[in-house]
Amino acid sequence: MKEIIRVERKRILSLRNFLILSAAILIFSIFSSIMSLNNYNVYDSQGNIIMSSKDNLKESKLDKHKILLDEKAIKDVVESKDKSKYLYNSNLFILVASNYEKKIEELTSDDIKNFYNQRIVNVKKNIGGAGYIEDIDKLASEGEKLNTPLRLGYAEGWKNLNNDMVDFGTVVIVVIPFIILPVFAKDPKTRMRQLYIATKHGKKTLAKIKIITGFEVGAMIYITAVLIFSLSKLLILGFKGASLPIQSSVSYLFCPYNLTYLQQYLLNVTIGFMAMLIMVSTTLLFTSIVDQILSGALFVTFFCAIMTMLPKNNFEINHYLKAFLPYHMINFNKYYIHPEIYNIAGKVIPTYVLVILISLLVFIISTISTMAISNMKLSSKLK
Fold it and tell me: Which ranges does the record mark as transmembrane (predicted)?
């Protein structure tokens, strides 16, 4: 059986095509990383570079800029004690300013002392409208568990990686279904289906072999793509800061969950993998019915189009459907910036946990259905 799976895998994705695909991913990843690096150039009013990204990041990586965001650090920001244009200082200024409606220079001593209380108020505002008041309070209470004062430091590699995985992951999970379309398609050149059936227990294992092959190819492409993309980002922008809380980034200051950048990355990779499994399992289910590559391609295209065309401002659709569709699962930032609230048995379940569980259930149901339909079709043809 292993040998047959290997042959099927080569039929779906040959080594040559896999290397070409990997090379394309590498080129895209390097280009994306260089673009991210160039964003750290500092310009004057005429558009001239006054500080290169290399110098900017080199200074910001120094351990002396690792600080705790306590009252003293906030007071120093208010008093503009450090007027440098380096990344570490601009990040600190923007982080503090984003927590208040006042201008930095207007902050009082009480404002400075209440920085983290004000953050909780903003956390509630950020998730307001997503559920009942008591549920919002429960979720906001998670934000109070954040270890304070916040640890700040260099983590640009992880920040960029987690942010850019949204677009990259979307492309990957859309491409994979088109690659696995031939799994259940008829292959007149090799007549492999007839060879499988002729072997002992071939009728029983044919569907299993094809399903395993589809998921193996999908997993192989996804894992390879994520590894290449991740290493490209981190090698160019740095591995430092994995253990820092994501709230040290202005993008996630009001996130209610106590997560590090590494934990956020692992969650994103896991959710992306589950989204890939749903795309693969639904593609296999449909192609097991029609046996035609063109019909399968039309289905994948239609499925992707429908996911992008669903209304944006309908709460019921967003809450109960869109959040669990692969295209929207990949929008990782929504789990941390504007999380949906799901109350199950009196407990508020993090959106990312529920998404993983629901996608696992969909994957199992789709796979079992594919197996059953494929076996039924095979049995009817052999009668």
Answer: 12-35, 168-185, 206-231, 265-286, 293-310, 352-373
Is pTM beyond 0.85? Reply is yes
Instruction: Tell whether 103 and 166 lie within a shared domain.
Output: no
Do residues 362 and 349 both lie within one domain? yes
- 3 state SS of 256: coil
DSSP SS3 for 342: strand
Question: Which CA distances in Å does 192 have to 177, 188, 289?
Answer: 21, 8, 18
Same domain, 203 and 351: yes
Distance, CA of 162 to CA of 87 (rounded, Å) = 19
Q: Enumerate long-range contacts of 341-346, CB under 8 Å, 24 or more apart.
A: 341/127, 341/130, 341/131, 341/132, 341/135, 341/136, 341/139, 343/131, 343/132, 343/135, 343/138
Least trusted range by pLDDT, from 60-74, 149-163, 190-204 = 190-204
**Partner residues linked to 348 by β-bridges:** 343
Domain end among 152, 173, 200: 152
Confidence of residue 203 (pLDDT cuts 50, 70, 90): low
Q: Clarify whether residues 148 and 162 are in a common domain.
A: no
Examine the domain organization and report whether 217 and 320 are in the same domain.
yes
- Is the pLDDT at 200 greater than 70, yes or no? no
Model confidence at 293, pLDDT cuts 50, 70, 90, reads confident
- The reply to whether 116 and 241 lie within a common domain is no
CA–chain centroid gap for 270, Å, is 8
Q: Which residue has the higher pLDDT, 289 or 245?
A: 245
CB atoms within 10 A of CB 6: 12
Among 118, 152, 186, the domain-final residue is 152
262-266-272-273 Cα dihedral, nearest 10 degrees: 150
Count of structural domains within the chain = 2
Helix boundaries (H) for 13-52: 15-38
φ and ψ at 342, to 5 degrees?
Answer: -120, 115
Looking at the fold, whether 135 and 269 belong to one and the same domain comes out as: no
* Distances from the Cα of 219 to the Cα of 8, 48, 180, 215, 326, angstroms: 15, 45, 11, 6, 15
In the block, residue with structure tokens 């351990």:
63
Give me the mean pLDDT over the 280-298 stretch.
89
Structural domain boundaries enclosing 145: 42-152
